[in-house]
Design a protein that fits this description.
Chains A, B: It comes from Paenibacillus sambharensis. Chains A, B: Keywords: DNA-binding, Transcription, Transcription regulation. 2 copies of one chain form a homodimer. Chain A has helices at about 5-10, 15-25, 30-45, 50-55, 70-95, 105-120, 135-140, 165-180, 195-210, 225-235, 250-265, 300-315, and strands at about 60-65, 95-100, 125, 145-150, 160-165, 185-190, 220, 245-250, 275-280, 290-295, 320-325, 330. By secondary structure, the first copy, chain A, is of the alpha/beta class. The first copy, chain A, has a 6-stranded parallel sheet, with helices on both faces. A 6-stranded mixed sheet of chain A has the order 7-6-8-9-10-12, with helices on both faces. In chain A, β3 (about 125), α7 (about 135-140) and β4 (about 145-150) form a beta-alpha-beta unit. The structure holds a DNA duplex.
Amino acid sequence: MSVTIVDIAKQAGVSPSTVSRVISGHPKISPATVRKVKSIMEELNYHPNIMAKSLVSKVTNTIGILLPRPAEELFLNLFFSEMIRGVVTQAARSSYDLLMATGTTEREEVEAITRLVRGRRIDGVILLYSRQADPVISFLKEEKFPFVLIGRNDEHPDILTVDNNNVQAAFDVTRHLIAQGHTRVGFVSGPPTLTVSRDRLEGYKLAMQQENLSVNPEWIVEGDFLQESGYRAMSYIMNLPERPTALVVMDDLVAFGVLGGLTELGYKVPQDLCLAAFNNTPMSELTSPPISSVDIGIYQLGYTASQTLLRAVKGETVHQNRVLIPHRFFPRESSLHTIHK
Amino acid sequence: MSVTIVDIAKQAGVSPSTVSRVISGHPKISPATVRKVKSIMEELNYHPNIMAKSLVSKVTNTIGILLPRPAEELFLNLFFSEMIRGVVTQAARSSYDLLMATGTTEREEVEAITRLVRGRRIDGVILLYSRQADPVISFLKEEKFPFVLIGRNDEHPDILTVDNNNVQAAFDVTRHLIAQGHTRVGFVSGPPTLTVSRDRLEGYKLAMQQENLSVNPEWIVEGDFLQESGYRAMSYIMNLPERPTALVVMDDLVAFGVLGGLTELGYKVPQDLCLAAFNNTPMSELTSPPISSVDIGIYQLGYTASQTLLRAVKGETVHQNRVLIPHRFFPRESSLHTIHK
DNA sequence: CCTTTACATGCAAACGATTGAAGCTTCAAC
DNA sequence: GTTGAAGCTTCAATCGTTTGCATGTAAAGG
């Protein structure tokens, strides 16, 4: 049916082993043989059977990537493709393929990963996001299977991670607002179970503290990653007796909601309220006013995660188990309004 | 190292073949044996080696998906994750895995696919988008390898495709504008090499023709899928001696640009110009005014493509080789302004 | 001219599953 | 008591590679 190494061997008048060695670039094959075999491979359009190959070599040249479940994907949707593009680009550069795993429940996720790992289908895994008490992480650690987490997980300080310095990023953003004269700065958070939410909240608090500004707990609103939550947050915040003049918002999409809410209530951004958000999605430039946002290097996160994983897979020692991708703040109109006391 | 079928067999006191048959649910294995083997599999946490399995069975339970190249991805970025989610969900439902292939050039793309196909790594392929003169399509046809194209390709009317009825969709949108009294309707197109651009342009023209409205060629602007092109289009269109009062725009993102350009020029939407676009991305609800847009069922496209492919892979006869996913128009503020003559 | 050495290749055993055919029980039928 | 069939299980070949070891041959050294 399909052309195999044996066919090549026959055609070339050598043994299959020789052909195999030609393919793998074994040093002591005569140049003449190499040439002959290669030309025949070309001619018959031979491509090695990957299954057979990895059956004996125990190496699949494939990394798995666990997709977020629909329920959790909403907020990841925006990053998702960029991240994967980073992963796939780097993986392709090292001739690795990418296998996607998923599941609609946590149980299914674990099952999917288990099947791939124990079925020797992949050499390593990238987890696209971190959540607390993740059974997948526990499983992978137990199996001593190479994996990289994009994000951070405090329960497992020893695993390989690629992350942003979210504390610093939030700190920077908050300082940017304070520098313009704001003293009452609020924070619209994401789900508190996510590390990223907690980190950014912490960075915000640190900045406030460093500037000797008191944080009114009423200014901290918990949202999710959908615009509605920003919308809702506004009807709450703008009705506070002492309301903030600036807001740090966890995500562009939520900032959109915030913007919508404010417009509806008749407030103007940045005159009545300054906004700065995270993730610098293409949207943030397109709103009116454009939203200041922190670019967290999504593509880089994916790319680096893949790179780190491949090092681990190949057994190279990874010098640092936590890599931080630099972020960059893009101030735009939504936060450019100086307060004069 | 890893627990194999032989280990199970030893533990259970049966032969490997028996274990294999238990796994595959062979009818004539005694219930007692089944029970015993299964419990031991459970106990040892056995998972079959997928490579070995597919080496002999010639089936990989994996479908490939060719990612668009970075250069082309820009416009697909938005659909991308939704589509993949559709594919992966449906595939997972049939216990199929997803392998991603990519390449930075057309040549690399073909190579990647060739390696997977001839290396017997996958059972079928989904092509995420259609372009003319695609060497990948030719290759797959030659190899008689199962694949599904999301989109359409006129050079190959016989292949399996999943697509929208873009002609009809554009027709509907144009009629919606005309119904509000517009007689001068323009069109901001995508790259003319893409089938989708041509289809929508055709639908637009048909609607105009049907209503006995003349199409001024000046009203048809060619853009790409980036907001800048919408921006540029406006400085051109609004300077025309006879300018349109409504526009059909190929994509939400471009409509954003259009919106931005108009705002900058001091025009108001929908009062000065009505807009209707395609793809109904989450953005379109968030702009001011919100943009009317056609939902093309991106998730459905992916889901159905996967379903169709799996049928083909399993050798089931596919009743129709071109599946159309229904679209739905969401009128929003950007196009809701009636013209009174 | 015979041994040593190096180099190039072939042999054959894996890798972990599947599967057609053969084999062994057990029991019913004649 | 032999024969047959049915039911369950094992045997052994196979899938397409890789790889340690054996082998053959030619050049180099004594």
